[in-house]
Each structure stands twice: as structure tokens, then as C-alpha cells.
Amino acid sequence: EKGGYEHFMLKEIYEQPRSILDSMRGRLVAESSHLMMSGVREYENKLANADRIIIVACGTSWHAGLVAEYLIEDLARIPVEVEYASEFRYRNPIITEKDIVIAISQSGETADTLAAIELAKSKGATIFGICNVVGSSIARATDAGAYTHAGPEIGVASTKAFTAQVTVLTLIAMILGSKRGTLETTKLHQLMAELESIPAKVEKALELNDQIVKISELFKDATNFLYLGRGYNFPVALEGALKLKEISYIHAEGYPAAEMKHGPIALIDEQMPVVVIATKDSSYEKIVSNVQEVKARKGKVIAIVTEGDKTIPSMADYVIEIPETSEHLMPLLSVIPLQLLSYHIAVMRGCNVDQPRNLAKSVTVE
Ligand code: F6R
């Protein structure tokens, strides 16, 4: 049932061109510039008129929530707060009937996320769910929602569920932006066309596999890793670090690149691998400086760059080129090499990739 792959995780990484497509199919019709989401339609006005949106989730789903914060604030101009479900529920949060809560969960069974929903519901908020497992507890507890059509995810490390979540959240941000008039029609059409081209670009990113195997060989014995990104790639840095630590047991931290100088820079020496997600976007010039700061301290830079970039490759030790896309959609591409990197390093270290120690696929305990 692993379809010829050695592990479910690898199979699921390779399924992403299809799972992303399935998560937008029927919801995005670029030629006629239509966005259709049955789960959203009923609540479209309520969502579009919200004073703020609160996103609750855990782990990788929380990272998808962070991407959504950037998307919804930028495209739809609605304030968004992204909360760890476990912190939100225990800190006496301010919630009113005017609030919209979006809960994100692959399994739909995460205890803290479910409890956060129940709390928000008791205060009268409207709850919207983004779940992968049909009929799951969270899907049933929400007022409305949209499923990610990623298909069953068996590997404990979440991969295709993350990109499916980001795809659905992107569609929601686009719908809200066009409804509120904050996203111009031409821009909407551009983004739609770009989103349609994402599955083929993910396919291209997967062709980097052999190159990533080689890089993994060089770093498999590292004891620490730093992941840096800015803007839309900041949540990707967090996700890359989480993937590495959970399956390879290498200590890794993700940081917004600009925060490096406020502490983590002290860790950098010639032993420290630093994965920098430095694609061509609005923070590119800034991240060039961050790469210089790492190199000045002799850190080993593994850079994820946009195809054709010349500046970062002249500074980095290893370069992974991914296709160009709008910065709004970049996490869907930039996360792919990081998933592969963590996978190969874990395999080389002899770790149980699909069932890492101490972890369960659904965290139904609080
Ligand atoms: C990471 C991972 C976990 C889950 C988290 C939330 O690879 O799998 O961090 O993302 O436990 O799970 P769901 O999305 O099922 O609520």
C-alpha cells in the first residue's frame, strides 16, 4: 500500500501535486475566474464582515495557520490572530459572537484544538473547520468548513496535509479578498492562474530529490540545525525545523531571519548548518543580509532560492533552486525540499520515519 515507496512519508511527499490539485479542484475555475467553495458560501458574508479571525491549531497545522495569517491580512485586510489551541483555551481569551474562529486539523481529533473550539462556541463565536479526516470530531463540532482533500495521511510527520491546508486557506483568503474588494480582479486572476500552475511546479520541486540526497549525506551527523525565513517563508522555516526534529531527532530551530541577531546568532560557528529559505520576494534583499551575517560567522548555508537567482548562490555553500511563483503561494513550493531533506536525513540515521518515537498520529490527550 506504500505504492512502491519505502515509506508512507515519501509516498505522501510525492502525492502532493495530486493532493494540492484535489484540494482546489472544483473550487477554482481559473478560465471563468470563479471561486466556489460550498462550505464557505453560506458563511461568506459573515466571514467577509468579521472584525477579526482567530485561527486555532497545533503543530504543523498551526504553521499552516501562520501562512493563512499572512494571506488573509494581505489579501482580505482582516486582522488575524493565530493561536496554539492549548494556550488559547487556558488563558481566558476574549471571544465574542462577532468573532470567527478557524480551526485547522488534519486528523480532526486533536484534543486541545477540539477544546478550543468548544470554548469559542460557548462564547458565541462562529467556528469554521479545515479538516482532512471526513466526519472527524472537529469536523462535526464546527458550524461550517472545508475539507482538505489530501487523502489519508499515514506517516506521522505531516506533509501533504500541510500543503492541502495552505491551498484551502489560500482559496479562502482569495474569496474574502475579492468579496471585500481588497483584492483587485486582475490580481485575483493572476493568483488563480498561478495557483493552477502550482501542482506542476511541485512536480518540478520533487525532481530535486537526488540533489537533496547528496546534501543529506553531508549533514546527517549534525547535532543542530537552524532554519531561517522571512515573510511567507517564516512559517516554512518553523515547519522545516519541526519536520527535522520529529523524524531525525536532530535538534532544530526555526526563526524569522531577522530575529537571528537577537540571540540565535550566538550559536553559529563552522559546525552549524543553517537552512535559509531565500526565494525572490518582497523580503529578498533583507534575507541576503541575513545570509551574509551567517557566512561572516562561518555557518554552513543551505539556501532554498528561486530558479535563476545569482546573488544568494554566490554566497551560500549549497543551493536548492525551486520554481518561481507569487510570494503568496511560495510556501507550497519552498516546503517541499525541506520535507525531502528531513526524510533523507532520518532514513540515513536509521530512524523509524513513519512512526517516530514518542509521537502519535492523532494527539487525543491534552
Ligand atoms: C507534525 C505533526 C503534528 C500535527 C499536530 C496537529 O508533523 O504531525 O505537529 O500537525 O499534532 O495535528 P492535527 O492537524 O491532526 O490536529
UniProtKB/TrEMBL annotation:
<dbReference type="GO" id="GO:0005829">
    <property type="term" value="C:cytosol"/>
</dbReference>
<keyword id="KW-0315">Glutamine amidotransferase</keyword>
<dbReference type="GO" id="GO:0046349">
    <property type="term" value="P:amino sugar biosynthetic process"/>
</dbReference>
<dbReference type="GO" id="GO:0006487">
    <property type="term" value="P:protein N-linked glycosylation"/>
</dbReference>
<comment type="subunit">
    <text>Homodimer.</text>
</comment>
<feature type="active site" description="For Fru-6P isomerization activity">
    <location>
        <position position="361"/>
    </location>
</feature>
<dbReference type="GO" id="GO:0097367">
    <property type="term" value="F:carbohydrate derivative binding"/>
</dbReference>
<keyword id="KW-0032">Aminotransferase</keyword>
<comment type="function">
    <text>Catalyzes the first step in hexosamine metabolism, converting fructose-6P into glucosamine-6P using glutamine as a nitrogen source.</text>
</comment>
<protein>
    <recommendedName>
        <fullName>Glutamine--fructose-6-phosphate aminotransferase [isomerizing]</fullName>
        <ecNumber>2.6.1.16</ecNumber>
    </recommendedName>
</protein>
<dbReference type="GO" id="GO:0004360">
    <property type="term" value="F:glutamine-fructose-6-phosphate transaminase (isomerizing) activity"/>
</dbReference>
<dbReference type="GO" id="GO:0006047">
    <property type="term" value="P:UDP-N-acetylglucosamine metabolic process"/>
</dbReference>
<dbReference type="GO" id="GO:0005975">
    <property type="term" value="P:carbohydrate metabolic process"/>
</dbReference>
<keyword id="KW-0677">Repeat</keyword>
<feature type="domain" description="SIS">
    <location>
        <begin position="215"/>
        <end position="356"/>
    </location>
</feature>
<dbReference type="GO" id="GO:0006002">
    <property type="term" value="P:fructose 6-phosphate metabolic process"/>
</dbReference>
<keyword id="KW-0963">Cytoplasm</keyword>
<keyword id="KW-0808">Transferase</keyword>
<feature type="domain" description="SIS">
    <location>
        <begin position="43"/>
        <end position="182"/>
    </location>
</feature>
